[in-house]
Amino acid sequence: MTVMLSADQRRLLGEFIRAHRERVPPGESASRRRTPGLRREELAARAGISGTWCAWIEQGRPVQASAEALNRLSRALSLTRAERAYLFELAGRLDPDIKPHADAPTSLLAAVKAVSHPAYGLDRLWNACCWNRAAARLFRGWLDDNHQRNLLRFVFLEQSARRLIPRWESRARHLLAEFRADYARNFRDGRVRDLVDAIHRESPLFAAAWNEHSVQHREGGLRSFNHADDGQLCFVQHTFNLAERPDYKLVMLVPTTGP
C-alpha cells in the first residue's frame, strides 16, 4: 500500500532518524572521529538498505519507507519500544512486531482483575482479550469460550445481543461510529480490513451504517441492559486507552440506578 506523507511528516521522520543515528556509538575503530555517531553509509550497512535511500529519507525527500526497511532501521538504531512506535507512526506504517494474537498487556490484565464490576479489555480489532467474572455474567453469549469474542460481531450478528441491548439498532450504529474513529488509525492492518469486509457481507445493518461514514469518539455514558436473569441493569461506561499500548482499551461498567 502506498503511503503519502506530508512534508512535515517527512521532515520529522528525517530529523528523528538523523538524531538517533548520531547517538549510536560508531565502535572502537572510529572512537576518535570528530562527527558523532554513525555515518549514513554505516547505518545503511547495518540496516541492509541503500546509502542513497538513507540520505534521502533523512533529507525529507518523498521516498517510500516500507515496514521491513523501518524494522531494520529500528534494530540498527537500537530504538526503545516508545521510539520504535514513534518511528512507525511518523512513517504511516504498521509495526510488524505487533503480533496478530499477542496476549493482553499485563497492566490491562491487572486492571480488569482488580475491578469488581464488569470490566473487559479490547484489542485493535475490538476482540475481547480479557474480562472478569462480572463481565462474563453480563455479556453471556459474548464473553465465553463458545463464541467468537469480537464485539462488533457479537452486537451485529448475535440474536442474544438484540435481546440484551435496548434500542439495539441505535446502539449498534453508535458502536460502529466509535469503531470507525479507530479504523482511521488501523486500516493499514489487513486483519482490520478483513473484519470489516466480513461483517459487511453478513449484516445489512452494518453495511448500511458503514457506508454512512459516521464517526464518534468512544465517550462512554449511561448503558442499560435487559439481562435474562438479573432483569434491567444500568451502568455508566468508562473507556481508557493504555499508555504503553494505545491500541488496547480498558472498558469498565460502573453500576448506577439509571437516569
Description:
The structure is a single chain. The chain has 259 residues and is an alpha+beta fold. The protein folds into 2 domains: 7-91, lambda repressor-like DNA-binding domains (434 Repressor (Amino-terminal Domain)); 106-255, Beta-Lactamase (2-Layer Sandwich). It is built from 12 helices and 5 strands. Strand 3 and strand 4 (231-241) form a beta hairpin. Helix 11 packs across helix 12.
Write a concise keyword list for the protein shown above:
single chain, 259 residues, alpha+beta, 434 Repressor (Amino-terminal Domain), 2 domains, 5-stranded antiparallel sheet, 12 helices, 13% strand
State the end-to-end CA separation.
47 Å
Q: In this structure, how is the largest beta sheet organized?
A: 5 strands, antiparallel
Q: CATH topology of the largest domain, which one?
A: Beta-Lactamase
Estimate percent helicity. 40-55%
Poorly predicted regions are none
Assign the structural class, choosing from mainly alpha, mainly beta, alpha/beta, alpha+beta, or little secondary structure. Answer: alpha+beta
CATH architecture of the largest domain: 2-Layer Sandwich
What string, H for helix and E for strand, traces the elements in order? HHHHHHEEHHHHHHEEE
